[in-house]
Amino acid sequence: MKPSWINTKEYPFTPKTFAQPMGTMSYLDEGTGDPFVMVRQSVLVV
Fold first, then answer.
1. Which has the higher per-residue pLDDT, 45 or 16?
2. 18 is a domain residue
3. pLDDT tens across 17-29, in order?
4. Count of domains in the chain?
5. Hey, which residues does 27 pair with through a beta bridge?
6. Helix, strand, coil % over all residues of the chain, rounded to 5
7. Cα 9 to Cα 35: distance, rounded to the nearest angstrom
8. CA-CA-CA-CA torsion for 41, 13, 6, 45, nearest 10 degrees?
9. Nearest-5° angle of CA 14, CA 31, CA 33?
């Protein structure tokens, strides 16, 4: 689901999600060619 504040003319991509036990990951699957992966780690406070 794309937030309503995103300008779809500047960001025309459709995000996809992958649910896992530790949470949900959001990713884009667009274009052709070799994959490009960027991972951002958040601080986990327990």
1. 16
2. yes
3. 889 898 888 888 8
4. 1
5. 16
6. 0, 20, 80
7. 23
8. -10
9. 150
Residue 19 belongs to domain spanning? 1-28
Separation CA 46–CA 34 (nearest Å) = 37
Instruction: Tell whether pTM > 0.70.
Output: no
Residues linked to residue 16 through DSSP beta bridges, in sequence order: 27
pLDDT of 1: 66
Q: From CA 41, how far away is CA 46, in angstroms rounded?
A: 15
- Residue 11 in any domain: the answer is yes
Q: Phi/psi at 3 (nearest 5 deg)?
A: -60, 150
Cα separation, 29 vs 14, in Å, equals 8
